[in-house]
Fold each of these.
Amino acid sequence: ASDVDKGQPHYVLLHEEEKRLNDLLDELILGCPFQYCIGTSRFMELDLSVGPGVLIPRPETEELIEWVLAEKSASITTVWDVCTGSGCIALALKKAQSDWLIKGFDISKQALAVARKNANDLSLEVSFEEKNVLDWSNNRQQCDLIVSNPPYVLPSEKIKMHTNVLEHEPGLALFVPEEDPLVFYRKIIEIASTCLSKSGCIYFEINPLLVEELIALG
Ligand code: GLN
């Protein structure tokens, strides 16, 4: 494989390598997202493990992180990534701000296992906690910054979505009820009303179709 890495056009694949390549091609032909096939996804210069049950981090979430970092205030200590999935937001923020105490929350045990593996593999000290955001009752935890990319896709958008996403990525991380698409945003704002410090901020990723409604919520 090292010869392949060096880009040698005359390299002849070993039998094992050829089998692996053919297996990967079969998975791709069946619509498996490329990142699941290779088991990793590049996100803000981090190589994150991903697999079925975890949303593949998207470039728009990288933009969210760049925005948070561009506007960060010096008074931030504790940061929450609500609906963390692979841990991408929490881990990228920790990589950039090693002094922040960062915690990621998710309802999915499968996602949390991946997030913890990613933290461990990258030697980034982020803690993760299992939490159904919609059931979150006031606890005494406090934070200075909430960053969240919660589910926000409408079921009516399925028609324009690729089967790679629809048949392979977790619906739990993507879809919200058509009749209450901001359910996560409302709940996170409610949580913030008791847990966020006075000068604290919330940063959301949002469905472009729901921007006006989200502004109206604030
Ligand atoms: N941006 C993702 C997509 O386009 C959705 C992420 C989310 O639901 N929070 O599939």
Note: The longest strand covers residues 196-204.
Amino acid sequence: MIKVITYGTYDLLHQGHINLLRRAKSLGDYLIVGVTSDSFDRGRGKLNVRNNVLERVEAVKATGYADEVIIEDYIGQKIDDIQKYDVDIFAIGNDWEGKFDYLNEYCKVVYLPRTEGISSTMLREESQEVYRLGIIGSGRIAHRFVPETKVVNGVEVKAVFNPDAKESKCFAIKHGIEAYSDFDSFIHQVDIVYVASPHMTHYDYVKCCLLANKHVLCEIPFVLCKEQALELYRLAEERNLVLMEASKTAYCPAFGHIVTLVKSGIIGDVVDVKASLSKQVLPPTRELDPIQAGGAMNEHAPLCLMAIVRLLGVDWHDVSFHTKKENGVDIYTQGVINYPHATSSFTLGIGVKTEGNLVISGTKGYVYVPAPWWLTDFFEVRYEDQTKNKKFFYSYDGEGLRYEIQEFLSMIVNNRRSCYKLCRRESEAIAEIIGKYNNGENVTEI
Ligand code: CTP
């Protein structure tokens, strides 16, 4: 019996897939089809897949060509499968010509003709409404944001707003979009908004966008106190709009995996979370300007606090800070958040350099995420018995902003108003702790 194997995502199953499966089956007697898992696709940068793995498996089965369907979940699995299932022929469309020649060592490799004029990407693009996105602010993060939108289906950056006409024009020319220095004209040209303006302006801009009935993705720090966060989320809810904090690490696949592993008990009960983040800056810069809400806390606390509240929740019983200030901003702040059954701390620097890792300690082991943990692409679960240690590798594509953009679009398209990767309550808790620091509650200067 000749066994053939082929792989694919098979999203929105189309005639090209059916032709490929028919051709693959005709090469032998028994066809095994490997369908990619959702997490494997996300990990290799395929962010826009519409059907989940179960739907895609069902669609492949319904073609009647597959004798067996398996799930492809990791890089290198093809070599394992070919040996495990005693495969004779590996077949794939000729858009992959040459890419799988390395499998010749294990079986025969056949590149089959691809059907012209159709693909899942094409079908996704044809069927999806394209939202016009406007950016408020034209600083560093906004520049990095635009290219990241290009890998997400259903969104196109159309306009930028900056009250300084020269700055908005300069940004617009660079990215081929329209420039506005008048807010009302800008807001009428877009469907959804990314707020990336100076920290102190987030509250006002988010409010104006929500009042204009636009969905909003707001850069961190979302707002600088709990009251503002509560008010804005309430407003979004009343108007059935998406309001999302752009805490990029929260939406990246590797960080999500850390949270699910820890919650499933892989290191026992979590007793301590330590998150650090330091990026030294030189004057003159916004980060060192007290007028622009500079300082290590406002700048870096959102990501560290996000990790802590995602892992330990929002029901802490006390929070305290030790801080070193220079010229009106904190160049270093360490905070401690105590919970009934756990403790946590965060260490932030803009004028002090320190290690930027994340360590989650539990009763059975710990998770170590090396610096820069906020661009998570690798982590290790460690135990007393080192033979049980396990390393996890992921790709953190581009600037990593694509994951939050994809989540933002998915919430809008699917009419979801809350996101388990960073829920409203967690976002409010982050603003609350930043607010406590800015109010001087339990703050000791060193
Ligand atoms: N395929 C094909 N003809 C097409 C599209 C896909 O023969 N028009 C083949 C691919 O070469 C591969 C298999 O179908 O062997 C599964 O491909 P997949 O990547 O799932 O489909 P695409 O339509 O190419 O998906 P996407 O646009 O997301 O890349």
Note: Residues 74 and 174 are 39 Å apart (CA to CA).
